[in-house]
Amino acid sequence: MTRVLAIAGRELRALFLSPVAYVIISVYLGLVSVLWWLLTVGPYAQTTYRPIASNMHVFLMFVLPAISMRVIADERRTRTLEVLVTQPVRDYEIILGKWLACVALLAIMLAGTLHFYIQMHFWGEGDLANGPVFTAYLGLLLTGMLYLSIGVFFSSITENQVVAALLTFVVIICVYFIRFLGDNMTGFWQEVLHNASTFYHFDDFSKGVLDTSHVVYCVAASFGFLFMSVRSLESRTWG
Asked: What is the pLDDT of residue 195?
């Protein structure tokens, strides 16, 4: 675990030593700021935090591929991956460490939006019970972790960061909207497609529903993509 944390720290420092982290955080917080104004004091004012959290989730779908696209692809492009794998670290430690660095940046981004909730709380606007806000942020973190694991996987199979980001975005969009395909079906396949959709799982989080099945889905799917990332790294490094 020590080596995983060391890799995560190295990757997180690399993100903040370049403009990448600052640009991504600024874009995300800027989008959420505009959203917050529209949904609290602007023409589309709402009385709960749920619409804000739901749109924050949508924004994550667009910005997270930009975080994960470089983690392995850039190492391949600069030929530093060969140096990394010759160190006394295992392939799964490399993948986990880089993914954790991305998750840490995600957590920083989400923490940066908490002041919007605090302002609404002190202004006494609408129903701002702590429970639904907590579950909404938990849902944002868990689905974000899943999106980042998808990004790490695609970063592990290509040297081109743009290709990795585009493939990640396409899969994220498919996983999000697949629920609506299930709406046109009945029975078994409707259940399968609904449960495969991040929209379905996050919708409950945003309502204040803390169901272990939603947590298991996000964690299991995340580690599924991380496992495929490890296998990809092994095959491309030693194959």
From this structure: 84
Q: What are the backbone angles phi and psi of residue 115, rounded to the nearest 5°?
A: -65, -25
Question: Can you tell me the distance from the alpha carbon of 110 to that of 113, in angstroms, rounded to the nearest whole number?
Answer: 5
Instruction: Give the domain ranges of the chain.
Output: 2-238
Cα 201 from Cα 222, distance rounded (Å): 14
Can you state the angle between helices 130-156 and 91-111, rounded to 10 degrees? 140
CA–CA dist 99, 224 (Å, integer): 13
**Which residue is it, tokens 């919708």?**
203
Residue 191, token pair as written in the block: 């259940």
- Tokens representing 5 are 């944390």
- How is residue 83 written in tokens? 């140096």
The 10s digit of each residue's pLDDT in 8-37 is 998 899 888 888 889 999 999 999 998 888
Q: What pLDDT digit, counting tens, does each position of 157-182 carry?
A: 988 899 999 999 999 999 998 877 77
The pTM for the full model equals: 0.90
Whether residue 200 contacts residue 194, with contact meaning beta carbons closer than 8 Å, is answered with: yes
